[in-house]
Amino acid sequence: MSKPVISQTIGGYEFRWKEGIYIRVSRLRVQNSDGQVKGEIIIKNEKSTLYPQTYINFSADRTRNTLVKSLSSRYSEHDWQGIIDQLSYHLQEKTREGEPIIELDTTEDIKPPKYLIYPFIIANQPNVIFGPPESGKTQIAMTLCVAMILPWTNNPLNLGVPSESCVPLWLDYEADKDTTHWNFKRIASGIGVEYLSLPYRRCRAPLADDIEQIAGHMDKVKANCVVIDSLAKAAGGDLDKSESPSRFFAALDQLRCTSLIIAHTSKGSDGGRKSIYGSTLFEAYSRSIWEIKASHEGETLYVGLWDNKANFRRKLEPVAYTLSYDDEHIFINIEDIKTVDDFMKHLSVNSRIAEALKDGSKSPAELKEILSDVPGATFYAELARMVKKNKIIKMGVGRDISYGLPYQEK
Question: Residue 388 to residues 77, 167, 351, 381, 397: CA-CA distances in angstroms?
Answer without folding.
Answer: 86, 49, 16, 11, 17
